[in-house]
C-alpha cells in the first residue's frame, strides 16, 4: 500500500466533503478514491468515514487522523512549492570548487561581479588542488586548469592558459639569458610536483607546432604554484609558469618571459558540472556569465 497516496486521497475527501469532488481534484476516478479510503481503513483497522448516498461525515477516529495529518501534508506542499519557486529565482547558494590559484585570480573577481548583478546570490567556494567529485560533495560547478576533466561531466574550456619560461631580472643579470634549449638545460631551474601523486611534472614546450615534454633538472621543486612563482621571482632559478598567474609580475618587471618560441598552449581553464536536466536558474546564470568570452578574454593577455 502506498500510504502517502491513500492518506492524501483521504484528506482530499474530507476537505472536499465529497468523493466525486476529491476525485476530480486528484485527477482519478471516484472508484479509485473510494478504494483508497477503504484500503486505509483496513490498514488501520478502524472506520474513518460514515458514508450514505446523501451525507459524508467523519468518525471520531477519522477526525483524529485528519487533525493530525492535514497540517503536516500542508507543510509538505508548502515546502515543495518553496523549492519550485527557489528554482526559478536568482537568489540562493552556489557551491564552487577550484584550485587555489584559479579561485584567487579568476573566480573571486567573477563572483564579485555576479553579485553586483544578483545581490541575492551567495557563494561557497572550496579551494583544493584535488579533483572534486561534484555529486558526492554537493558542488554545483567545478573549475580546474589542465586538460578536460573527462567523462560523465559537462566540461567547457574557457580559455588557454599558456605556460611560459620566465626568470627574475637579477637571475638573468648574474647568469645570462639562455637562447636555446641546450643552453636552458645548463641553467638552474625550478620544478613542480603534483600535490596528489608527488610526481614531477615535465615542462611542456611548443616546438615547431608540436608539444614536447621535457624533463628539466631542478634545483628546487614545489607542490604549490604560488610558492614556485615566489622562488623564481626571488632569483632561485628559471621556471615554467602559468602566464595568467604572473601577469602583474611581468607588467611590473619582476619576471621576464624568455624563450617565447617554446610557449605551450596545451593547458586550459575548464568549467565543469554534472549532467543534470534541472539545473537551478541561479547556477545556469552563473555558468553562462562565466562562459561569456568577454569575461575571460583578459586572463591570458600577457
Structure description:
With 302 residues, the chain is of the alpha/beta class. It folds into three domains: 3-85, Winged helix-like DNA-binding domain superfamily/Winged helix DNA-binding domain (Arc Repressor Mutant, subunit A, Orthogonal Bundle), CATH 1.10.10; 92-161 and 268-296, D-Maltodextrin-Binding Protein, domain 2; 163-262, D-Maltodextrin-Binding Protein, domain 2 (3-Layer(aba) Sandwich), CATH 3.40.190. 42% of the residues lie in helices and 23% in strands. It has twelve helices and 14 strands. Strands 4-3-5-14-6 form a five-stranded mixed sheet, covered by helices on one side. Strand 9 and strand 10 form a beta hairpin. Helix 1 crosses helix 2 (19-26), helix 1 (3-16) packs across helix 3 and helix 1 packs across helix 4. The longest helix has 28 residues, at 60-87. The termini are far apart. The relative contact order is 0.13. The model has no long low-confidence stretch (mean pLDDT 85).
Highlighted features:
302 residues; alpha/beta; Arc Repressor Mutant, subunit A; D-Maltodextrin-Binding Protein, domain 2; 12 helices; 14 strands; DNA-binding; Transcriptional regulator; DNA binding; DNA-binding transcription factor activity; LysR_HTH_N
The percent of residues in helical segments reads: 40-55%
Domain count: the total is 3
For the biggest β-sheet, the strand order reads 4-3-5-14-6
- Named CATH architecture of the largest domain: 3-Layer(aba) Sandwich
List segments where confidence is low: pLDDT < 50 over at least 5 consecutive residues: none
Order of helical and strand elements: HHHEEHEHEHEEEHHEEEEHEHEEHH
The tally of strands reads: 14
User: What class do helices, strands and sheet pairing give?
Assistant: alpha/beta
